[in-house]
Structures are given as structure tokens and as C-alpha cells.
Amino acid sequence: MERSPAERVLPASPNWYCGRCSDASQDGRLFGFAARHTVCLLEARPAGPAFYGELVGHTERVSGFSFCPCPDQNYLCASSSDDGAVKIWDTHSLAVLIEHSLHQNTISTLHWSPKVKDLIVSGDEKGIVICYWHNRNDSQTFFPEPRTIFCLTCSPHHENLVAIGYKDGIVVVIDISRKGDVVHRLRGHDDEIHSLVWCPVVGEEAICSQHEEFQEEITAGRVSEEAAGTKGYCLASGSKDQTIRVWSCTRGRVIMTLKLPFLKRRGRGVEPAVKERIWLTLHWSKSHPARIFSSCFGGELLQWDLTQPGKRKWELLGTSSEGQNHCRIVFNLCSLQVEDRELLLSTSMDRDVKCWDQLTLNCCWTMPSLGGFVYSLAFSAVDAGCLAVGVGDGMLRVWNTQSINNYYDVKTFWQGIKSKVTALSWHPTKEGCLAFGTDDGKVGIYDTYSDKPPQISSTYHKKTVYTLAWGPPVPPLSFGGDGDRPSMTLYSCAGEGIVFQHNPWKLSGEAHDINKLIRETNSVKHKLPAHTEISWKPGGSILAIGNEDGSIEIFRAPNLKLLCTIQQHHKLINAIRWHHDHGTQPEMSYMIASGSNNAVIYVHNIKSVIENSPERPMTITEPFRTLSGHTAKITSLSWSPHHDGRLVSVCYDGTAQVWDVLKEEPLHNYRGHRGRLLCVQWSPVETDAIYTGADDFCVHKWVTSKQEHSRPPPGKKSIDLEKKKSTQLKPKAKKKKKPPGKQPSTQEVGDWLNGGEDMKESPLQENRMSDQEGEKEDQETAEKISLEAHKVLPSCPQTVSGVDVPKLSSIIKTLPVRKDPIKPGSDAFVKRKKPRSILPLSTNMDHRSKEELHQDCFRVATFLHAKDMKEDLASFSKEPVHLGLFTDRPSLYKMMEAEGKSHLENGHPELFQQLMLWKGDLKSALQSAAERGEITDQLVAISPIAGYHAWMWTVEAFARQLCFQEQYVKAASHLLSLHKVYEAVELLKSHNFFREAIVIAKARLRPEDPMLEELYTSWAAVLEKDGHYSLAAKCYLGASSPYDAAKVLAKKGDTASLKAAAEVALRAGDRDLSVTFSFRCAQEFLSSRNWVGAQEVLQQHESLLGHRLVFCFNELLHKHLNERNLVESRSPSIPCYHSWPVKQGGCFTEIVIGVWQSIFGVNTFEQSQKILEQLRTVEYPPTTPNTHPRQLLFHISHDLTLAFLNLQTSSWEEAVKAFLRAVTRSYDAGNFNLMQDICNLLFPTVCDHLREKLDHTDSQSMVTFQSLEAFVAYGQLYDLWWDPRGPSALEKSELQPEACSSGKSFLDQSNAKLNSSLEEAAAETDIRKASEKTEAKISVEPDPFPKSNGAPEETASPAKSALSMEREVKLEACRVLLSAEHAAVQSLQRDISRVQQTLTDMICQHQKNNFHQSATNGQNEEIETPSGQAWSQDQVNEQISLPDLTKQLTEANKKLAEFPENIKASRFPDVLECCLVLLHIDSQDHESVISEIQQQSLDLLKKYRGTHICKDACEKFFS
pTM value? Predict the structure, then answer.
């Protein structure tokens, strides 16, 4: 396919673990590096790189690349590949000039000779070196050593010398003019030779000081040198043993050894004896022969000055600023001379190509690259030109395409991803907010302007995430106000066909499946189709959902009401895009384009459907426009934001097409990619720039106006489909039914291994993109695995070469579960009496008739005669195969092949294997057994006969077979025999054999290996989910995460678990967490009324001393109340109190203080002050009638503890506030008895003491104290009313049950008494006369609770007199309740409340009237009040206008504002309620006192009159 040039390209990543796979041209114009099976060429400039082109022609990984160093041929270059070919290219035409395939093994390295302009030297894994002279098409083969070659380099000074580095650390120098004789064999390295470089100048004087002898020392930074001799050649070698050695080729020994330093920037110390993952590549500076550049651990680059005296000879590159160095190991270095500047170019595992200035040692530019399929592209709507790229290498990139100084300003994100990034979506309004979806079903959100890890949704999809889209929230996330819910939520659609709605404010919460809302809104009862694509219309009012069956459903937000269904496509929907809404024609915003697995794009205009909103969903079957031209499935679409009706599409046919939608015309066709296109985005900044991504690992930016083609090429087929067809095994002509106990046939297993067309996948997986065909994401394993290991028996030519065995890691994840295991009792295991013949076909043919046997003799004789006469034997190829036993070897092989095929068809693979072993073709037997899934332990045992690689391949295949048979532990054991520890651990982990996986990992891996921590945390997560918290905690401890261990132990919430969690946290050093769990444990003990256990838990922490005092106070208070039967006890457990010594006969206050001092040692002012500071930070919520009594008592204990501590520290004002909080808590909870008991227990002794200590000039303190006194008096007031010890106790006791049984009598009597007094007072014009009459009426009016017998009073006894004096004191204390200020404030507050309620009732009545009028068309109906009763005539007459009510409300608020704030804010009992109670207290004993108080009460009732007062007070009391 002809390719158009791209403006910019993000290329594929450079290949890893190659000795020389990048190089620069001699003229300084081009830099090339191997990327997968191509070579990427860049124009290298000091300011930045520019994409030049690609060299395409190899079919497998490129392993070596080198430019021609001759000035007149610097446009030529050579490459080698795993496909066995060496190609020579012309960089002007990007075409192959000549190639050879002389190597029979995998080529590992290649170099173009600096001295001979047409000589290319290459080496392979078997140790073969081939010299190829392309001008004369001549070659020579050498075999210096039977070892694996890792690198080689030709001498720049001698045309016949070639240095070769081997895997075992040997370096040899051969002379190709003397049949490859070894000139020098250099020993010293202990491990792989990664790089060899010759000194650019002749002689050793440039690098050695003029000393007679130098001592060799192999320590970091120390150099061993020996005296420089005569002029010779110097060679430097870099090895995996972490050393650089400089050799003298004249004497054949080392003259300098450099040890790599362990740099501090690596973050942790490393034992010098521990070998880490490293690739040590070298480059010898041409302009400074005494300097060598090398890679180091973790991606650092070093410059070594060989003439520098002392220990340290190295200097780190890129130290002027952070972030210049690579972050992973470096594989290749080469230099480039541009504009009088010598540049150094490096390629690394971090997928970056960096350019360095060799003079300043600073990084000039960085070229990013991609290591996987490009699945998704997304431009930010906020930051124009900011392009997000989702790649299959487990990373996403953000490319600032508008950067002026750096065309490749790319930021990479990898944290928290760990899988292929398959979907991206920018937040439409929030800058830097990028959502991503992955191949393993993960959905997360990145803040691209910070370095924090992403937020990950707790809800995972079961399969690959296809699409992400931001849209308005739909129920249930749409409920609530604007500040309670996000304005935009994230929608994700994945391979299982479900669309989730994620709350970006709370990704830890559960995501919602919108199918539930669709079912509820549209009353759907049938099964919904699997969803594959979602797209919101700009504006967020309409949602389009594409389905697996090819339909597209249009919904209206927020309830997702179905408007219509587009039934146009018949295959899975891959892309849906709405036209933008800022065009010149507004109606075009209703156009929606869609693409599916067929090659046609449909555009629909659904304006009429959206605007008319039909009652029933419509079905659309005719498109508005049809765009035809592609020849494979459509993968992505994008509308031009700069034009109306212009669309770009990408397809599996490898092209991108720009369409004029209204005219249905193709405009421009881009053919620059080399694979299937997966995504496309039209630039929001440049009108004719488009960005496309494909499975060639590249992102291209191209311009529409520069394309020479206007439509896709006709008849283009999928490249991968052709490959599959060409490598497909031919089906057998004859098949028999399998017996029930037999294993799958060869064809079935072979198809599964090959990934052929017969392999069945679900439609969602089959029709979406996958990079399993070509993407190799974990190239790090190549460090320890031979390059032949993944091939299928390469040295066996008669085997099927198209079999592509999947990677073991992918087999572990995708293996199907075998549901019909072979049972030992099946027919397949029945032993035969007579052994089967191994050659049944030929045996049967020899038992035919005599005439047929004679014919066989004739044929054999004719064959032998023809063979003796050297005639053509082709005519005998059709003879019966059984005659091969008597003719030649090829015929015998043919017979054995037929016999073996017969054994396989008849279900006797063991006989076939035995036959192949006779033939000497054990590899074919192994191959067949692997294809049929019939490898046995015996086959594995004899497989080493076929060679080391065959044994390795057999063990791997047997491991896959065991996985298929669910024998995972045995499979892991076989993997361990190959030293594949990580694969074995991963296999066990993926099938939940965590215990076995941990045993292997701890036994075989380093203690600091992250795999161990991952195993423990994964197992802990599973155990935690199943409720095994103790074992999960041990796993977290094994992962060195005591915080998580403590948290998971506390999940059960019982006392034992919380206590254990606190102890674990304490032993781990996390005291704050231990304190939290200890306090929770103490509260759990409190719920079971076990104060002893609570104190034992709390006493472990000094910081909880304040809480211990609170629990102590709670225990003493509960004990006191329990003795008086004032505590509700529904718990079956018996209270567990401490046996603390207390002062007998002392008051409660003295008891509490005594226990604090004796038991807890709180004796000093400083101790009390410190505890106060601890407890003041604790706040509890306000009390309501629903508060649990146990919780209420604990909160009161906390407040009273604060009050007592304030008394100890003489903080009188704070003590008053704390006492008031404790009293009002019981009052707010409606527990009147508890309030009375607390007041009687602590007051009035404390009140008198506080009154003396308070500052009487402080109004705020006095108001608070007055409130406290009022609540104390409020409790005593009801004691006086109901006290059975009063003068009329007997009479009251007889009537009290009646009064308490029904509030009506008391209510009626109280109303009658109050109304008669008020009405008579109102009738008199003189207030004084009214008062006198009222007093007279009170004196003569019968008591509402009359005495039953009217017996005369007896003379008061002395005890009765003392009781009478006590009542008098209490009556005097009740005067504080008759506060005129508080009565006025409460009256105004009630007036305001009544006016507000009236306004509310008026509004409700008005709405109800309007509703009834519209419902009954004007008919007169009775209108009910909000309470459910009809409005009376009096209520109608009392209604006033809205202005009057507003005026009343304003006046009341104005009066209320005149009172001090401290009066309005202070808590106070209801004054008028207290007045009513005082009017009904018996006045026989203290007539003067009670009369005066009752008169004050009556005056307050007169002033703040209202018959509702009595009713409200009585209802409140009796409820």
C-alpha cells in the first residue's frame, strides 16, 4: 500500500535487549532505531527530531541495525531480523536494495564495517558469524566459538579484525582474512557481554598514564591499569557483571577495569554482590578518545574520563535539572555530528529516545514512543490541543500538540493502570480531568496537572472497557440539589454489554447500571441488548446507545425515556458520534453518524423525533445519508469542528477517509499506517489536521489537503485475516465420533492453539479490537529467555510452521475450563489382552489374496530395477504405502506417516509417539501430543532426547495442558523446573492458590521482591471479602502493612476484634489508630454494661485518661440510677461495676472526686487542665427524643465530667455551661425523670457554690447561671405538685391516677379557671378591680382537684413542720421561673411561629383550591385544611390578608430584636407552662407565699394571654 507522508508521528518503541539496534548516519542527517519488525528513521537536529520515514519489509522483530560509515554511501543501512534475513536499504527511497538469508538460526547482532564499505558482519545465537560483501554478492561463514553471540563490532583500524562478545562473558577477536582464526581470547567477565566498542584512535597512550605498571582493582570507582606499551588497538567491553573492561589487543589482557557505582538517586542501598537487572551499553567518544559513555542502573548515563586520577572517574549526565535521565535501563548509545556539535542518542526501556550534548552533558530533546496498539485518542475541550493517547503498553500519554518549543511535548502516566488503556474521555469543563478505561475492566480518573495516582472506581467491568463519556447525572445520582450532586458523571461501556454510571465525587462508591433506569422508565420486560457504545449529544439532553445487535437507541435525559430506535446496522456498533452544535446550520446538530462491523457508515437526522417527543418509541429504518467505500469494519468516527457536515472515519482496511456527508462524497483518503486503524480525532485547533492511531503502535498527524487519494482502495482485505487463512491447518477429510472418555481431537486442540477461525469467542470479544496477534507487552522477560524459546521446534522442517503457541501468561488468563475430565473407569483405560500392532495398515495389506501379494512383488521388483538404472522414480509415488517397507527410505517415511495418521484417528496417540521415536522424529511426536493435549509425564521425561529447547517447549506445553485440566499446582511445579518462578506464582495466584503461591515466592524470590507483597494483599482482599478477617490480617502483616491489618481486624466490630486491632496497631507503632480502636472497644463494652472491661482497654493509653474519667463518671451515675430503678434495663447482661472504695454517706460530688483522686491519680491543677484540653476536642451531636438512653447517659456523663474538671480548675463560667448542657440534654430527650434525678443529685448545693464564685458583673455568665437555676427549679416545681410528702398527700394520691389517666379533666378545669379569670378581668375597665375580683375568685373557687372527704386538717407535727419549711424554700426557688423577660421573648417567638404557620396554611389552601377547581371544572366542593378537617366559619372569619400577616411578622421581629442576645440565645423552661402549674399547687400550708407567686403567674398569663397556652402545656405534659 502506498503511504502518504505524515506531518508528525509518535512511533513504535525501540526494541529491547539488542546489542546494536540503533545507529546514526555518517553525515549527521538521520538516526534510525529498530521498532518491532520495522526501522524508524528520524531527522536528528539539536532543536528536536522530525519523523523521516520507516523501513518496512521484515516479518519479525528487527534485532540489529547499522548505517554504512563510508561518506559516499552514508544513505545505505543494513538490518537483521528474527526472520533470518539481512536487508540492505536505500534511505532515499526507503526500499530494499539487496538481502540474504544465509543464517539458519536467530540473528542476534549486526555491524557495517567502518573500513570496508560493502562488508556487513552478522552473528547468530548458535555462534555462526557471516561476512557478506553486498557489491559482489559474496559471503563467508565462520564458527569461532560454540557459544551464543550477544554483540560484535568491526575494527575501525584494521579491516579484518572483528570483536565478538558471548553470553558466557568471553570476548574474542577474530581475523576474517585467516578463515576466522581467533587472534585474542579475552577472559575476565563473568556474565553476558552487552556491548563492545573500539577506541577511535590507535594506541594506548590516549587512555593510559605513562607508568611502568598499574595495579588492577575491581572496586567501584577504582581503576587497574598496566604500563602502556607500543601502539596497538584498545577495546572496551560492557558486561552484565556490572563492569567495564578496557583491553589491550596487542598484549591480549585488560589494562583498566571500571565498576559501575551505586548511585544515591536510586533511592535504596543495594548489596554489591547482588546482581540487578542491567544492560551495560557503551559508546567511545570520537572527539575525546579518553572518554567513554556508558549506561548504569535504572537509566542513568555516565561519562568516564579514563585519564582522571583517583577513585572516581565518572560523571553523571543530566544533573543540571530534574527529569533529564531515563527512568529505566538503557539499551543503545550512538553519536551524531550536527552543526559542529557532537550529540549522543540513547534508547531505553522507558520507551524514550533522548538526545544529549556531549559537551554540556545535558539532554537536548526527548522523543516519546509507544509500546502497544493505539486504542483511543481524545482532545480536551478545555485545554485546546491537548491530546490524550491510550496505548496497549499499560500507559497513557498526554500530548501538547500546540507546544512551540517542543513538537513532542508528551507527559506519560502509568500509575494505577497496569493494563491496556482502551478508552479515554476528558471532562468537558474541568481542566486536567481525564477518565480512562482499561482492558481488565478498570475505570479511573487522572488529574493530569498533578503527580498523584489516579482515582479508581470500586466498580470493575468484567471485560474490556469500550467507551467512556461524560454526561449529566441520571437517577439515582440526579437526585438532590446542585451542591449535593456532581454536574457531570462518568459513563462507561464494556465488553459484557453493561453501561455503568460513576460518581466522580465518590468513585469508591458503587456505580449504577443504567439498564435498571431504562427498564423502570420504559416498562421494559424483555432482555435488553448488550450495549457496545454510548454517546451524549452536545448539551447533555439526549443519549445514544449502540448495541451488539446493530441497533441504536435514543434516550432523553434524565429519566432515559426511549424516543426511537435506529434499525440500520445489522452488526455490532463500534462508533457513534453526534454532529457539533456550533455550526452555521443549527439543524445539523441533530445528525448522528454511526459505524459498525460492516463497512458502511450511516448518518441519521433525528430532529423531528427529538423535538416532537412521540408518546411511543419510533423505529427508524431509513438513513439520512449513506457513506460507502470502506472494505472492513469501521472502528472510529470524528466530526470536523471547523466544518459543517464533514466526517472522518477509520477502518480495519488500514485507511482513514474524510467525507462530505451532505453530498455523500469521499474527499481525502490517508494511507500512511501499516495496519488496522483503531481511533481518530479531528484537531480542534487546526482546520485540516487529523490524528489517527493504529495497531502499528503509531499515532500519525496528517493534513487532509496533502493527500493524493480521495477514496479507499477497492477490495482491501484485513491483513490479519489473510495471515490466519494462510497459516490455517487443513481439516482432516475423515472424522470419527469421539468416545465419551477420549480427549479432544488433534484438530480441535490445534485450532485452539493457533487461534484459528474455528476457535469460538463471544461476539463482544470477537468484534472488538485486540492486540493479542502482534503486541508484545512484557519484553522484559527476554532477558532470561532465549530468543528461540517461543518458537515451535524451529529445526524440524516437516512440522507445521504456522503454529503460533500463545504466551503462557495469556494462556493462564484465557484458558477454558475443562468440564469433562477423563475418568479412570472409562473405556479408554481398559487394558487389552493382546497388544496392538504398531504397523496395522501394512500388516493387514500383507494378509490379502495371493494374486494381490504377487502384484506387490511385481511393483517392488520394478521399483528396484528403476532405481538401479537411475530412472525417474516419480511414477512410483502413487504406489501403495505399505510397500515402503521394501523400497527406499522416503517411501518408508510415507508409510510411517500413514500408520501414524491411522493411530491418531483411531485414538491411539501412544502408538503414534512410539512410531515417531522409531523414526527419529521425537519432535513431531511432541508436537502432535501438544496439539491434541495428550502430553504425559513419560513424554516430558524423554523429551531431552530432542534437545534442550525441545524439552523446554514440551514442559511449557505440558504446563498449558495441565492448566486446561485444572491441575494448576502440578503445572506450577513444571514451570519451576524451567526456573519460571514468576509465571508459576502468577498461575497459582490467578486460580486462588494463594497459600501455595506464597510458599514458592518466599522460597525462591528475594525478600524485597514486590511479588510477595502483591500476593499477600491479593489474598487478604479475597479473605476480607469472604469474612475471614483474622487470616486477612495476618496476610496484611506479612505484606508489612500493619495499618491494614488493624483495620481489617476491626471490621467485625465486637469487643474481642476491636481489642486485638488496637493491640496490633499499638505494637506496630501506630498509636493514633490504636487509640481509635481502644475507644471503640470501650464503647462496645459500655453497650454490654461492662465498665471493668472498658477501663482495662482504655488504661493502655495515657492520652485516653480523660475518657477514662468519663467512663468512671458514667459508671457511678449508672450505678446510682440503677439503685433507684431509674434506668431502663433491656439488656440480659448483668452490670459489671468496679468495687472502688467510696466515702460512705458522702454526696455524689465527693464520691466522684474521691474516686478520681484515689484510682486515677487526678490530684493537681495541671492534670485537670490537661484532661480538660483532651475532652474539649470531643463533640457529640445534639440530643433528640430518638436518642438511645444509653447514649444519652454517656453524653450527659461527658458534660458532667467537663463540669467537675472545670470546678477543679476554678473555671466557673465553663462549669456552669457544662452543667447546663447536661441538664438540657435530658430535657431535649424528653426524659423528665432523668433530669429531675440529676438536678436532685447535684443541685442546689452546686448552684449555691457557683453563685458565690461567679462574676456578677458578667451578664453572659449570669444569664447562663439563671438558665441553670431555672431548670433546677423546673424539676422541683413538679416535685412540689406531685410530692406525696405534702400536707394533702393522701388526698392527692387518691386523685392523681385519675388525673394522669386522662388529660381532659385537667385541661377542662384549667381552661375554665383561666378563662373565667381573664374574661372577668377584661370586662372591668379598672385593672386593679379586676385583679381584686380575680384574687377573690381564686380564694373562693373550688380546687380543680378537690379533697375527697373534706375532713378537717390536723395540727401539724414537728416533722410536718420541717417538711413544710422545705416546701417553702422550694417555692421561693421557683420564683426564678417567673422571668418576665423570658416570658416576653417566648411569647414573641410563639407569635412569630403562629404567623409563619398561618402563612404556610394560606399557601397550602391556595394551592389546594386551585387544584380542586381544575379537577372539578368549577364545582363547589368542601375544601379541607392541611390537618384534614373542613374550615369552620370562625376560621374563615379570622383569616386576614397577606399584608396584615407580613406586618404582624415584622412588628414581632422588631420587638424581639430589642431584647439582649444572651436572653434570646439562652435555654429556659416555658414560663407560661410554669405559671399554670403554680396556679394548681396546693396553697394551704404557705398561703402567703403561694398566693404571691400565683398572683405573679396570673399577671404573666394576663399579659401574654391566650387560651391555647393551657391546652399546649397540658398536651405537652400528658404526651
Answer: 0.53
DSSP structure class, residue 883? G
What letter would DSSP give residue 1160?
A: S
Q: For residue 1262, give Cα distances in angstroms to 1275, 1377, 1463.
A: 20, 15, 10
- Which residues does residue 89 pair with via DSSP β-bridges, in sequence order? 77, 96
CA 398 – CA 157 distance, rounded (Å): 47
Q: What stretch of H or E contains 124? A: strand 119-124
Q: What is the pLDDT of residue 1353?
A: 42
How far the first Cα of the chain sits from its last, in Å, is 91
Identify the pLDDT of residue 1321.
40
Pairing label, strands 119-124, 107-112:
antiparallel
pLDDT value at residue 685: 93
Q: State which amino acid sits at residue 1342.
A: P
- Please state, in angstroms and rounded to a whole number, the distance separating the CA atoms of residues 619 and 682: 31
Residue 116 pLDDT: 92
CA distance 668 to 1074: 68
CA distances from 1450 to 481, 1391, 1454 (A): 30, 11, 6
CB 964 within 8 A of CB 991: no
Name which of 200, 243, 237 is nearest 223 in CA terms.
243
Sheet holding 656-660, edge to edge: 634-639, 646-651, 656-660, 665-670
pLDDT at site 1244: 59
SS3 455: strand
Contact at 8 Å (CB) between 213 and 169?
A: no
Q: What SS3 class is residue 1203?
A: helix
Distances in Å between the Cα of 802 and the Cα atoms of 47, 376, 723, 797 are 46, 31, 9, 12
Angstrom distance (rounded) from CA 1510 to CA 1516: 10
Q: In this structure, are residues 72 and 46 in contact, taking their beta carbons and an 8 Å threshold?
A: no
Other C-beta atoms within 10 Å of 834: how many? 5
- Phi and psi at residue 746, to the nearest 5°: -60, -40
Q: What sign for the dihedral angle of Cα 928, 932, 938, 944?
A: positive
Number of Cβ atoms within 10 Å of the Cβ of 1289: 15
Backbone angles phi, psi at 278, to 5 degrees: -155, 150
Number of residues written out for the chain: 1519
Residues 532 and 547: their CA atoms lie apart, in Å, by 5
The answer to whether the CB of 354 falls within 8 A of the CB of 345 is yes
Which are the contacts of 623, defined by CB distance < 8 A and separation ≥ 6?
568, 602, 603, 604
- What CA–CA distance (Å, rounded) separates 1500 from 1494? 10
Q: Which of 444, 355, 323 is closest to 394 using CA atoms? A: 444
The residue behind cell 510452521 is 801
Cell numbers at 206, concatenated: 590516549
- Strand spans (E) along 949-1058: none
Q: Residue 875: which residues within 8 A CB-CB, separation 6 or more?
A: none
Quote the CA–CA distance of 394 and 416 in Å, as a whole number. Answer: 9
* Burial class, 452, CB count within 10 angstroms (exposed 0-12 / middle 13-18 / buried 19+): exposed
Count of CA atoms in the C-beta half-sphere (13 A) of 432: 9
Residues pairing with 355 in the sheet? 345, 365
Distance CA 629, CA 550 (A): 19
Q: What is the pLDDT of residues 831-859, one digit of tens each?
A: 445 677 878 887 888 788 888 888 878 77
Identify each DSSP E strand in 1082-1174 by its residue range.
Answer: none
Rounded Cα–Cα distance for residues 1367 and 768 (Å): 91
> Residue 751: CB partners within 8 Å, gap ≥ 6?
729, 757, 758, 759
Type of residue numbered 1311? N
Give the residues of the chain that fall short of pLDDT 70: 1-4, 205-231, 264-276, 480-483, 716-834, 872-878, 1125-1133, 1144-1146, 1244-1249, 1252, 1256, 1282-1364, 1366-1369, 1373, 1414-1439, 1482-1490, 1505-1519
